[in-house]
Design a protein that fits this description.
214 residues; alpha/beta; TIM Barrel; 8 strands; 17% strand
Length: 214
């Protein structure tokens, strides 16, 4: 691992977050940087702590348990789509769940007595390839999940290569209507737009590790 490049990448991303906050009249501490570690060798992940990384994200429940289950120095986020038969595995390591995207998953989390914060996923773009409730279903989905779960906010993924800003703005408006404070939105290609539109968590992987893994 090229630690010098890692440090430079992280400094650049943090600067861009600060500048995005300045443009939006926000404070940088309002935005959590979640470093997505799915492409990183497990033995290299602990080195992130020395670079000031405190939150990491994994995409798969079983692999996440194997890769980061014992890394208590980080707050660990499950950010990928979660199968209902993998919920128990995810709850063994994840401290935040970003992809509550359907009723069956809400029901399984209830059965497992999940006590971690969750984000309700909304398919703002309407793309068939993306999971989540439709925007018009968001309020009902939040109300349903809130009966037994700790709903931290809403999450979405913007279309690749398109203008993410309208999608993020729509999610912020939905969150305001639903009365939830958290907005998990923005990845390597669009996190600045996410921050300017109110993101409280950005999920960044490739921009962190570009040129880092030897």
């Amino acid at each position: 691992m090229n630690l010098g490049r890692l440090r430079s990448n992280l400094e650049g991303i943090r600067l861009r977050i600060r500048e995005s906050c300045r443009r939006a009249g926000r404070r940088p501490e309002e935005v959590a940087l979640i470093v997505v570690t799915k492409s990183v060798p497990p033995e290299a992940i602990p080195t992130l702590a020395a670079e000031g990384v405190s939150e990491i994200g994994e995409n798969r429940a079983v692999e996440g348990l194997e890769r980061v289950g014992g890394l208590r120095q980080f707050r660990r986020h499950m950010i990928g789509q979660l199968q209902t038969n993998k919920v128990k595995k995810a709850l063994r390591w994840a401290e935040v769940l970003h992809s509550v995207d359907r009723e069956a998953l809400v029901e399984e989390l209830e059965r497992c007595r999940a006590r971690i914060p969750v984000y309700v996923q909304v398919n703002v773009s309407g793309e068939p390839s993306k999971a989540g409730w439709r925007p018009e279903e968001a309020a009902a989905a939040v109300a349903r999940a809130r009966r037994t779960l700790d709903v931290a906010g809403l999450m979405t993924m913007a279309p690749e290569g398109g203008d993410a800003r309208p999608q993020f703005r729509r999610l912020r408006e939905l969150a305001e209507r639903c009365g939830v404070p958290g907005l998990s939105m923005g990845m390597s290609q669009d996190f600045e737009a996410g921050v300017e539109e109110g993101a409280t968590a950005v999920r960044i992987g490739s921009a962190v590790f570009e040129g880092v893994l030897l």
